[in-house]
Amino acid sequence: MKIEIWSDVMCPFCYIGKKNFETALEQIPYKDKIQVIWKSYQLDSDLSKTEPADAKEYFDKKGYSLEQVAASKVRLNEMGAPYGVTFNEGNIMINTGDAHRVIQFAQTKGLASVAEEALFKAYFTDNKNVADHDTLAEIAVEIGLNKTETLEMLNSDSFVFDVASDVLDARNIGVTGVPFFVVDRKYALSGAQPVEYFVSALTQAYEKDHLDASSNDGATCDVDGNNC
């Protein structure tokens, strides 16, 4: 069974959703038969790759005050606490396109989930600039990628098309917020669902489509920043 997950590095509920999803996978007896593919999504592709956005101006445009954002962080930290995840103040609001390219590169090495995890932590906990190439290369090394290859990739147009293709794919299937999970291109799960929900939904999907087949032959962040 193939599960595609659209996610953005700057989406806090994508971080929580990843944790809940992976916890659920450990409780599913068919986990070894499930293929996970991480797909790129950008909540704000208009952000600069070189100049971080001013927090107050940015959230004013989204209709939030800094006080509301701080209150949201309290809720997020409550959700992240069971996983040891910390959401700090002062995240660097920057374009995540190159971070997605690193994830795409990592996916070719079987390290996409590890890359997602490292970049979430870098953005939300460590307040790192996830558009800075040297920072991205350091993160790449931490997860087992080659620094020189990573920098060469970042200084080229490698995976630019892949990121854009994922974003277009999301638009074509009606994704308006992330995280968004698509199972075998038949079923969709939206948002940072509880572990129990993931377990139930994914188990039912597998048993409905794959066990039957084998017997025969053998909350989200949206593009406007809402709910973040």
Note the main attributes of this structure.
DSBA-like_thioredoxin_dom; two-stranded antiparallel sheet; Glutaredoxin; Thioredoxin-like_sf; oxidoreductase activity; 228 residues; DsbA family oxidoreductase; alpha+beta
Structure description:
It is a single chain. By secondary structure, this protein is of the alpha+beta class. It has one domain: Glutaredoxin (3-Layer(aba) Sandwich). 50% of the residues lie in helices and 11% in strands. The protein contains 9 helices and 6 strands; from the N terminus they run βαβαααααααβββαβ. Strand 4 and strand 5 form a beta hairpin. About 2% of the residues have low confidence.
Task: Write a brief structural summary.
About 50% of the residues lie in helices and about 10% in strands. The protein is of the alpha+beta class and about 230 residues long.
Structural class, by secondary structure, is alpha+beta
CATH topology: Glutaredoxin
CATH level 1 name: Alpha Beta
How much of the sequence is in beta strands?
A: 5-15%
How many strands, which pairing sense, and closed or not: the largest β-sheet? 4 strands, mixed
> How would you sum up the global shape?
globular
The appropriate CATH architecture is 3-Layer(aba) Sandwich
Estimate the helix proportion, in percent: 40-55%
- End-to-end distance: 30 Å
What order do the strands of the largest sheet run in, or round the barrel if closed? Answer: 2-1-4-5
Number of strands: 6
Instruction: Please tell me the overall pLDDT.
Output: 93
Over all CA atoms, what is the radius of gyration? 18 Å
The quaternary structure here is single chain
Tally of contiguous helical segments:
9
| Helix and strand sequence | EHEHHHHHHHEEEHE
**How many domains in all?**
1
Superfamily at the CATH H level?
Glutaredoxin
Q: Name the poorly predicted regions.
A: 214-218
